[in-house]
Design goal:
The protein has 357 residues and is of the alpha/beta class. The protein has 14 helices and 13 strands. The strands form three sheets. It has a six-stranded mixed beta sheet with strand order 6-7-8-3-9-10, with helices on both faces. Strands 2-1-4-5 form a four-stranded antiparallel beta sheet, with helices on both faces. A three-stranded mixed beta sheet has the order 11-12-13. The longest helix is centred in the middle third of the chain and has 18 residues. It is a peripheral membrane protein.
Length: 357
């Protein structure tokens, strides 16, 4: 019996959210210089610039759901790292709010923030940040020492994390004895050792060679399938973003231009800037069947395909004459129908006039 067409599952609870976040560099702000309710952010930004200030982050708002990989991307200087540092309060925003599990982080006292970072947040940065005088085991165990765990407790958990990232046998190695990819694995293991609720990664793979970078992306996705972390991931690489993300936020000059799934950005870019970002991405390698399926019952005699299959998996059938597909619910996708003509139009980036795709 054929599965019934199922609706897409609803979003998970919100893990972290920011509302109308501003980060401004320059002279201290006067009391009367603040974004008014309902005011155009660009007007306020212009007023700031006129006084010699730099709005590095402008009116940023979004939510990240539990278990989601939320990627923030943009060109160098767009505000990506500023945003992630405001979310963790490594730097303070001038306006707006950040909430973790509903708690107002902007109001948290310094000691509370330290405890939140030590127990709820994991962070991985581009430069790895390993301590050169400590071996792999001690590097991974170090944040657990700050938590006050005994030596036996922290070494036991550190060994688990080292095994998780595939570095068994290298526990005694110093960082300079490791390759770039191995050093990054140590950084990942160390950030996971505290068993964080929320995992921040700021361009963690950008310093790696392309082949190692691809391997690390594979391992990252494998880790996420096993651990189901809530992740905020920074990158300037649209191919990496599309490969890893559940949703992507694109920044330009401190403003969020569009938030959506990789399919949203490919099929329905908000403007020419977003379209240029995705221009070199092959839709067939990113899109899933469920991204472009249309509502409706299955077509008699149509080829059955799972909604979570990549679109490129259909090309062989289309080449041999298949014209209609019955899309079965799978993963996060519901079912529907899909024609070969629609597949080819979308892959050719031609709008079929039905849904902007």
């Amino acid at each position: 019996m054929r599965p019934s067409l199922a609706a897409k599952p609803g979003p998970q609870p919100v893990k972290i959210a920011c509302r109308n976040l501003w980060k401004i560099y320059g002279p201290p702000l006067k009391r009367d210089l603040a974004p008014g309710p309902g005011a155009d952010p660009e007007d306020f930004a212009q007023a700031l610039r006129a006084t010699g200030r730099i709005p590095a982050l402008m009116d940023a708002s979004f939510e990240v759901h539990e278990g989601e990989i939320f990627v923030i991307m943009g060109l160098s200087g767009s505000g990506k790292s500023t945003l992630i540092r405001c979310l963790t309060r490594l730097i303070d925003a001038e306006f707006g709010e950040v909430r973790l599990d509903g708690e107002d982080l902007m109001a948290a006292k310094p000691r509370d923030l330290i405890n939140i970072r030590r127990h709820k947040m994991g962070m991985v940065f581009q430069n790895f940040g390993l301590m050169p005088h400590l071996n792999v085991l001690d590097n991974v165990a170090y944040p657990l020492k700050l938590q006050g765990l005994t030596r036996s407790e922290r070494e036991a958990r550190a060994r688990q994390m080292i095994s998780l990232v595939g570095l068994e046998g290298r526990e005694d190695a110093l960082p300079h004895r490791l390759s770039g990819g191995q050093q990054q694995r140590v950084g990942i293991a160390r950030s996971l050792a505290v068993e964080p609720d929320l995992w921040f990664l700021d361009e963690p793979f950008s310093a790696l060679d392309p082949m190692i970078r691809r391997q690390m992306q594979d391992e990252f996705l494998d880790l996420q399938r096993r651990l189901h972390k809530t992740i905020v991931f920074i990158t300037h690489d649209i191919a990496e973003a599309c490969r890893l993300a559940d949703r992507i936020a694109i920044l330009r000059d401190g403003r969020i231009i569009q938030i959506g799934t990789p399919a949203d950005l490919l099929l329905r870019p908000a403007d020419d800037y977003v379209a240029k970002f995705t221009a070199d991405i092959s839709p067939s390698s990113i899109l899933r069947v469920g991204d472009i399926a249309e509502p409706g019952q299955d077509t008699t005699g149509a080829r059955e395909v799972a909604a979570d299959q990549p679109v490129e998996a259909l090309l062989a059938d289309i080449a041999t004459g298949t014209t209609e597909f019955s899309v079965l619910p799978a993963g996060k996708y519901g079912g529907g129908t899909l024609s070969a003509a629609r597949v080819l139009r979308i892959l050719a980036r031609q709008n079929d006039g039905t849904d902007g795709a």
